[in-house]
Here is the input.
Amino acid sequence: MIDLSPCMDRLGYRFHNEGLLRRALTHSSLAVEQHRMGEDNERLEYLGDAVLEHLVSRYLFDTHPEMREGALTRLRSSLVCEGALSAAARRLGLGDFILLSRGEEQCGGREKASILSDAFEAVLAAVYLDGGLGEAQKLVQEYVLSAEGMNDHSSSKDSKTAFQELIHADHKGRTIRYELVSESGPDHRKLFTMRVLVDDVEWGMGSGPSKQAAGQAAAQMAIERYTKA
Here is the structure.
């Protein structure tokens, strides 16, 4: 049996029922390998997903009274997506404690975003069941809603990709394109200005020392505008 005390130290929470934490860290591959079907973290992941959505929804509702329903939904989705949750799990060091099959271990399972994000949700559910909603809220506040956590959904990918995912989450058929607006300055100090359009409607404009940097700046402006729409 693996000693889970270091994991609880990182969580900042001591379990009354350590079996809950052990279950939350047990990947389905290990349960299958050890012929312990159903003794994995999938049910806890299901509950953790619901607890996480509730806590993030309430936080956004309270802190963004100016946002309409659509913008709140998009922002919540970006905070609880696989990329953001796997980043939270990495900062927590959860990968060190996940219980995997030998095959999954050899395939680098501890670094897989899907496994890390699922484990984070399962651990959240375990904390909720063992200590109540208040303890679960502390975990979400520190690793999802902190300043670092709020940036995880965009820091793990470039702004162009993040904007594309936001748009396609609502309207898969929409066309996104970037257009050079201007180019100025001497060759050694060029300044480019790009704009991003969605179905030929401008959503953002930005400048930078290269077309790529200007495009990223335009996308970031578009993200900020889109989440407030």
Q: What stands out?
A: The longest helix spans residues 42-63. The chain is about 60% helix and 10% strand. The chain has a mean pLDDT of 86.
